[in-house]
Design a protein that fits this description.
Blueprint: H1 14-30, H2 32-41, H3 48-74, E1 94-96, E2 103-105, H4 112-122, E3 133-135, E4 153-155, H5 158-176, H6 207-220, H7 238-247, H8 297-320, H9 327-345
Antiparallel strand pairs: 1-2, 3-4
Helix pairs in contact: 1-3, 1-5, 2-3, 3-6, 3-7, 4-7, 5-6, 8-9
Length: 364
């Protein structure tokens, strides 16, 4: 075990590269249940701006998950029993590495506090690149674990985590050449198999396409460079999409850019009103035990949703694991889950006054 940041090179072998790509799958997925919970909590017909913003980000997280899977498949990794592993869905609230402070990411209704949490998830943090690891400020194990390190160590930020994967790819390619990309190209998710939304899918067959796929993730979301409103495709990054909800105003493409403005964080587009009260009062970080007795309708509905979500992950894993044609119907299933979520969120929990049931993503 080592904790020497000054000579830190975490990825020195193909096996280590595959390990951290699986960690990347966990990170990309960990944001989806929080985003879906906030999305489900919106009352029908209200807050259309929020609905479209959160839904679009959730779709892009699916894109990120798919791009990481393509890189993992390209370097000969296996997706089998990855998304269906018992620890793939975190126990919420969970800790994510984002700069100088750890913070909890939980499952909660749409609210200003929830959007602030989403901003923390997507906020880019910069630090000297020779100091990418820190002791977890909570002294607890983080969702993103470091191979052969003290478990209380974590990355300073998700951006620096991806920077290490990119560095490792370059280093291994310099050593191995194109032999690094030994995976079967037929396992790649190509545009014909990907849900039409969230950006372009990139099949990974060599170093250039692998770096390009990871750059999409970095520019769109959690790994983004600090202050950048738009990615290379001139799509607004996740941080600034969520910020619009707190400001009640849209950014304007090719006009607003805090990196080139004397007044950062000031969009100039159309204004809109957010109704923070048009939301179901969901139970935060709900567990199945919240819905007892076990023979109640709420308990059965919570079990049914959790099973459907587990099936959704199994279908995604099947598609990533050599059956790309299965991806389009699998991703569509993510949005059909809303119908089952509605069976929960519209119902008060009898034992908790003024609190409604919420989806269960993991059985603890």
């Amino acid at each position: 075990m080592t904790t020497d940041n000054d000579s830190l090179k975490l990825i020195n072998t193909v096996e280590e590269l595959r390990y951290y790509l699986i960690q990347a799958l966990k990170i990309e997925h960990a944001t989806i249940p929080p985003y879906l919970t906030a999305l489900y909590s919106l009352k029908s017909g209200s807050n259309l701006e929020a609905f479209h913003i959160i839904r679009a980000v959730a779709v892009e997280e699916m894109l990120h998950l798919t791009l990481v899977a393509n890189v993992l498949n390209a370097v000969g990794g296996s997706l089998q029993s990855t998304l269906t592993a018992p620890d793939f869905i975190p126990t919420y609230p969970t800790y994510l590495p984002t700069g100088s402070t750890d913070f909890k990411v939980g499952l909660s209704k749409f609210s200003p506090e929830t959007i602030e949490t989403f901003l923390n998830i997507e906020r880019a943090k910069e630090v000297a690149e020779d100091q990418p690891l820190v002791v977890s400020r909570t002294l607890r194990e983080c969702l993103l674990t470091i191979l052969n390190y003290d478990p209380t160590y974590t990355f300073y930020s998700i951006g620096l985590f991806y920077a290490e994967i990119v560095r490792g790819l370059y280093a291994l390619h310099k050593e191995m050449g194109d032999a690094l990309f030994c995976g079967n190209p037929d396992r790649q998710i190509t545009p014909q198999y990907y849900y039409n939304g969230g950006g372009d899918i990139i099949p990974v067959t060599d170093l250039n396409s692998a770096i390009k796929a990871l750059k999409v993730i970095q520019e769109q979301g959690e790994g983004s460079r600090a202050g950048a409103v738009y990615d290379a495709e001139r799509q607004i990054s996740h941080y600034f999409r969520f910020q619009q909800l707190l400001l009640g105003q849209f950014y304007v493409v090719n006009s607003d850019d805090p990196t080139n403005s004397d007044l950062p964080d000031h969009p100039t587009g159309k204004t809109f009103t957010v109704d923070w009260d048009a939301v179901y009062p969901l139970k935060c970080n709900a567990k199945l035990s919240d819905y007892k007795p076990e023979d109640s309708e709420l308990y059965a509905a919570a079990q049914e949703f959790q099973q459907s979500y587990s099936n959704f992950l199994a279908e995604i894993e099947y598609a990533f694991d050599g059956h790309p044609e299965a991806l389009i119907p699998a991703v569509g299933g993510m949005f059909r889950l809303k119908e089952q979520a509605n069976l929960l969120i519209r119902n008060p929990i009898p034992s908790l006054e003024g609190v409604n049931a919420a989806p269960i993503f993991r059985l603890d």
